[in-house]
Amino acid sequence: PPGHEGKKLVDEPATILDASGAIIAWYLPDALTDTTQKEIREATDLLAPSLGKSVKVDGNWRTNQKWFHQGSENDGSTPGCINLSPAWFQQAHEVGSDEMVSASLKGASSENILKAIARPAAIASAALRVMHPEQYFAWLRTMSNLGHKAVSKDLPQMLETLQYWASVFNTLSIISNRETPNHRDH
Prior knowledge:
Blueprint: E1 14-17, E2 23-27, H1 34-54, E3 80-84, H2 110-131, H3 133-152, H4 156-164, E4 172-176
């Protein structure tokens, strides 16, 4: 607090401001209801096969099995690290090649996965609409542009994925039961 007047328990929605009055954090207790949290856990169950395949004995620092831990029996979370995206830039392809749906969304259960994450993703998108409207509208333009590109370049899988994509973010990285090694980003 500004004058360090003491501690205060905040149990209602609040914003935290910096010295200039800019919002640096939003506190939204119970924004994700028990029902929504259950939906997120159920969506994670649909991702278990992809998460399980992502962990490698000799993987890089993101996927090496030594950094992943089995969840408890009560938790049941499958360890792994995957990316979900309707328009993923492909590694080891020529510069200028078209984006494609990420590998984790190419399976038979991709529509079910997208439907399962739709409401939690829409909640995050609505929050961003309030908290950072410029970024929200940039997302709308980006999704529209990707849709036009999918039609003009005949990319049916991308077009279908975009129809169900409810997240304001163009990629969701799902990291489950992972320990992060000490490192410094440059």
